[in-house]
């Protein structure tokens, strides 16, 4: 079943002025539910912009986005998606539990239920015992896990993630990749994941979209041929290396301008 | 980490400075035989203090009430105006330059005029001066706190379809609290200054500013100094109360928690 379809989406910033930027040009894309799709591409190619357009945080200059057959605006109002940004974006005056509770509060879920859900989610991302801490008392990686728990709180059909592990060290990132993969497999959430790490993209995805810059376009869509369940042994799989090489090749083309 | 040790290292230097300063003052007045009307010795002022304790407390309280009244009126008005205008960006953007300009005007210069409006003996005339003085920093800081919100946090709220009122109460208001406490601290200091100085332009006989001017005019300088010290103590106490409330109200903020993560 198609969860996300993007039809001819373009986005121009400062249209008409001398510093007009074509961030996205004629993007067409459909994503089936239960997929884990990564977007990879040189920096400035419009990955964040695409995610923002999908989330109805900015309007496209042309084209249409529909989530589950609804407009992007309606999906946002219905809280169909959860978003994880590059920075954790926690509310510093809220302790960890209330931070995770926030989206459920805005959705009008009763207090006992939302606190129970938040506790379970925190345990799921390995943060049991930190409910009453303030964000500043947690490391960057822990804060990002809080952000992931928060995004999962409303059981989104679609999870939009913009380089969520970009600021983490390699070891932490690999651990987070495993956790995210487990979360994805255990839930019925479709993930759209922006990254600039090739190995992260191959490890997590069922499909990788390679974008090129100026103007931001989709260069290639690569289906990842690996077992649905990934674990530490995945990184040893010979197919893992082959697909890493293929993605790297496409990325090189994207960087040299298609 | 020894908590007591850090308490001592933190407070010992200011305590030594305080008593050292008093000692030097006393020694200088005696050593150089400084005249009473120039600078009385701390021991003489302390003597006056003990002698006139009840009177000093009663006039101190009179002026403290004016300062408190003005603080409450001015801060409330500043907050109300800030909330009202920050709902309409154009309103607050139009008002802000005027507020910032007004904030750098010596409002105390209007004291004789305000004394005239409300009656020189009426404590309300002093409250109004104090209220006008504290209104501007309160309003300016509150508007800043309500509007200088992290763009990413706004985007987060939008992604969860938060209503404008939810954005106000769950994002803008908590974001404004540290700014507002800064303004409360400024207002606490200004309100005692405003009350005493506006009394210098005339007022009730039982007011601190009147007491200080009259005692000085009649060469009772130790009394005048005792009055000044009352004003200092009340001002400091007022500020301290605001700081303590701030600690309780925004324990999460860096100004309160210090900068030692992991604590
Ligand atoms: N709000 C904006 N105003 C103007 N230009 C923007 C804005 N946001 C992004 N851009 C431009 O759009 C292009 C794509 O940006 P972005 O989507 O952030 O890239 P990526 O996330 O792939 O690094 C860049 O050239 C960037 O400068
Ligand atoms: Mg980006």
Provide a short characterization of the protein structure.
Chain A has 258 residues and is of the alpha/beta class. Chain A has helices at residues 47-54, 72-77, 96-106, 111-124, 140-152, 170-186, 198-204, 238-255, and strands at residues 2-13, 21-32, 36-40, 62-67, 70-71, 81-84, 158-162, 190-194, 207-212, 217-223.
Question: Can you give a write-up of this model?
Answer:
The complex is a heterodimer of chains A (258) and B (263). By secondary structure, chain A is of the alpha/beta class. Chain A folds into 2 domains: 2-80 and 156-256, 3-Layer(aba) Sandwich (Rossmann fold), CATH 3.40.50; 91-155, no CATH class. Chain A has helices at 47-54, 72-77, 96-106, 111-124, 140-152, 170-186, 198-204, 238-255; strands at 2-13, 21-32, 36-40, 62-67, 70-71, 81-84, 158-162, 190-194, 207-212, 217-223. In chain A, the strands form 2 sheets. In chain A, strands 6-7-8-3-9-10 form a 6-stranded mixed sheet, sandwiched between helices. In chain A, helix 7 packs across helix 8 (238-255). The model of chain A has no long low-confidence stretch (mean pLDDT 92). Chain B has 263 residues and is mostly helical. Chain B has a domain at 63-204 and 228-259: MetI-like fold (Orthogonal Bundle), CATH 1.10.3720. Chain B is 80% helix and 0% strand. The radius of gyration of chain B is 23 Å and the shape is globular. The A-B interface holds A 55, 57, 76-79, 81-83, 85, 87, 89, 91-93, 102-103, 105-107, 134, 136-137, 154 and B 150, 152-153, 155-162, 166, 170-171, 174-175, 177, 250, 252-254, 257, 261-263. The complex binds adenosine-5'-diphosphate and magnesium ion. Adenosine-5'-diphosphate binds at residues 13-14, 21, 23, 43-49 of chain A.
């Amino acid at each position: 079943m198609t969860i996300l379809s993007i039809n001819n989406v373009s986005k121009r910033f400062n249209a008409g002025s001398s510093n007009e930027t074509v961030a996205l040009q004629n993007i067409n894309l459909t994503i089936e539910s239960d997929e884990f799709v990564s977007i990879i591409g040189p920096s400035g190619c419009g990955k964040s912009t695409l995610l923002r357009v999908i989330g109805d945080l900015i309007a496209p200059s042309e084209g249409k986005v529909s989530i589950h057959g609804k407009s992007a605006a309606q999906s946002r109002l219905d809280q169909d998606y959860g978003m994880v940004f590059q920075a954790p974006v926690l509310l510093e005056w809220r302790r960890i539990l209330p931070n995770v509770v926030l989206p459920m509060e805005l959705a009008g879920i009763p207090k006992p239920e939302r606190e129970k859900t938040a506790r379970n989610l925190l345990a799921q991302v390995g943060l049991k015992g930190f409910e009453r801490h303030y964000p500043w008392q947690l490391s960057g990686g822990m804060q990002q896990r809080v952000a992931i728990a928060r995004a999962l709180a409303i059981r989104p059909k679609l999870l939009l993630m913009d380089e969520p592990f970009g600021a983490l060290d390699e070891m932490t990132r690999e651990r987070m990749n495993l956790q995210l993969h487990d979360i994805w497999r255990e839930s019925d959430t479709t993930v759209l994941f922006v990254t600039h790490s090739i190995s992260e993209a191959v490890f997590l995805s069922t499909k990788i979209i390679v974008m090129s810059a100026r103007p931001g376009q989709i260069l290639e869509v690569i289906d990842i041929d690996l077992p649905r369940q990934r674990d530490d042994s995945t990184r040893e799989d010979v197919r893992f290396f082959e697909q890493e090489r293929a993605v790297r090749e496409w990325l090189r083309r994207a960087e040299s301008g298609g | 980490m020894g908590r007591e040790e850090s308490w001592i290292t933190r407070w010992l230097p200011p305590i030594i400075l305080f008593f050292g300063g008093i000692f030097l003052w006393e020694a200088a007045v005696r050593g150089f035989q400084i005249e009473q009307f120039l600078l009385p010795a701390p021991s003489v002022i302390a003597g006056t203090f003990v002698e006139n304790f009840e009177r000093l407390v009663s006039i101190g309280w009179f002026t403290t009430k004016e300062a408190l009244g003005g603080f409450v009126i001015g801060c409330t008005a500043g907050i109300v105006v800030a909330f009202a205008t920050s709902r309409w960006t154009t309103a607050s953007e139009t008002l802000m330059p005027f507020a910032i300009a007004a904030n750098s005007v010596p409002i105390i210069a209007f004291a004789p005029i305000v004394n005239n409006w409300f009656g020189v003996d009426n404590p309300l005339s002093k409250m109004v001066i104090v209220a006008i003085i504290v209104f501007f920093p309160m309003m300016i800081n509150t508007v800043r706190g309500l509007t200088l919100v992290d763009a990413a946090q706004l985007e987060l709220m939008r992604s969860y379809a938060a209503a404008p009122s939810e954005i106000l109460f769950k994002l803008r208001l908590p974001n404004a609290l540290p700014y507002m406490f800064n303004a409360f601290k400024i207002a606490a200091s200004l309100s005692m200054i405003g009350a005493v100085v506006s009394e210098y332009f005339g007022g009730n006989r039982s007011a601190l500013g009147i007491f200080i001017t009259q005692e000085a005019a009649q060469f009772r300088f130790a009394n005048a100094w005792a009055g000044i010290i009352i004003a200092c103590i009340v001002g400091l106490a007022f500020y301290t109360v605001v700081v303590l409330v701030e600690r309780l109200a925004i324990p999460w903020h860096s100004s309160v928690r210090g900068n030692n993560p992991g604590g």
